[in-house]
């Protein structure tokens, strides 16, 4: 099932996206008692709505240096435990919204990531129970102001407005997360491509580790790291993160005014 957030006639809504011979249709959620996120009445066609970020997280927890291919590319040792950092909620935008490059930034980078969306409250979760707390998965771009890492902490480098595109929807029944291929394109040029089986710490391990320190609530997001090939983007570019079975998240890059 694909869960979306959207804007239609100036109003925001949540619904279920279902295929149709005449184009994908947006359904309202069905009445309570018909199953979690059951599809109700048709609201509009997909091309009649503006997709928003598919969730509105209070907390976005990220894992750094989590792909073997990236560590090999950088010549770094494997971590003993997940390296965690946060992105602020103000950084979240949806498909098609512009990534705003601050004029002071010398190098703005894309980082394609598999994003996990939490479905039920998660605190001190065991790895074997972790997937019970997952609503689904979506695409993410961990936008980073590379030169701002020199601050000594990453709040500014990771959390400026528009630095966390998410979307296009939450897929509740994806293929096995470790088998997903992640591809990033700048325009038509492929700049990142790897399989999530390159992750050092898998989704259950990450959720278990994160929830030792952070209580995660429905709608919160965990970013699982980016593969090799992280690189620069500039105003005028369009960056697209595509993950098998999860769709494509595409955003233009514009100069912040």
TrEMBL record:
Keywords: Hydrolase, Metal-binding
Segments forming domain Fumarylacetoacetase-like C-terminal: 59-253
Pfam families: FAA_hydrolase (PF01557)
Coiled-coil parts of chain: none
Molecular function in Gene Ontology: hydrolase activity
InterPro entries per record: FAH (IPR051121), Fumarylacetoacetase-like_C (IPR011234), Fumarylacetoacetase_C_sf (IPR036663)
UniProt xrefs under Gene3D superfamilies: Fumarylacetoacetase-like, C-terminal domain
SUPFAM superfamilies, per database record: FAH (SSF56529)
Tagged with keyword Metal-binding: yes
Keyword Repeat: no
Protein family membership: Belongs to the FAH family.
Protein name (database record): Fumarylacetoacetate hydrolase family protein
Source species: Pseudonocardia aurantiaca
């Amino acid at each position: 099932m694909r869960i979306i957030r959207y804007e239609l006639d100036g109003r925001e809504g949540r619904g279920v996206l279902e295929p149709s011979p005449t184009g994908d249709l947006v359904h309202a959620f069905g009445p309570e008692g018909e199953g979690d996120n059951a599809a109700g009445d048709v609201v509009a066609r997909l091309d009649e709505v503006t997709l928003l970020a598919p969730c509105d997280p209070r907390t976005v927890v990220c894992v750094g240096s989590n792909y073997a291919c990236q560590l090999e590319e950088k010549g770094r040792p494997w971590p003993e435990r997940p390296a965690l950092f946060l992105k602020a909620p103000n950084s979240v935008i949806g498909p098609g919204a512009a990534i705003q490059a601050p004029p002071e930034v010398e190098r703005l980078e894309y980082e394609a990531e598999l994003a996990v969306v939490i479905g039920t409250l998660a605190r001190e979760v065991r790895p074997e129970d972790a997937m019970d707390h997952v609503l689904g998965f979506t695409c993410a771009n961990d936008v980073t102001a590379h030169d701002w890492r020199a601050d000594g902490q990453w709040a500014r480098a990771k959390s400026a407005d528009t630095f966390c595109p998410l979307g296009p929807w939450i897929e509740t029944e994806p293929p096995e997360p470790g088998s997903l291929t992640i591809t990033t394109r700048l325009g038509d040029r492929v700049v990142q491509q790897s399989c999530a089986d390159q992750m050092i710490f898998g989704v259950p391990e990450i959720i278990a580790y994160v929830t030792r320190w952070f209580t995660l609530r429905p709608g919160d997001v965990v970013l699982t790291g980016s593969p090799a090939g992280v690189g620069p983007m500039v105003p005028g570019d369009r960056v697209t993160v595509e993950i098998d079975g999860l769709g494509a998240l595409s955003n233009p890059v514009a100069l912040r005014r």
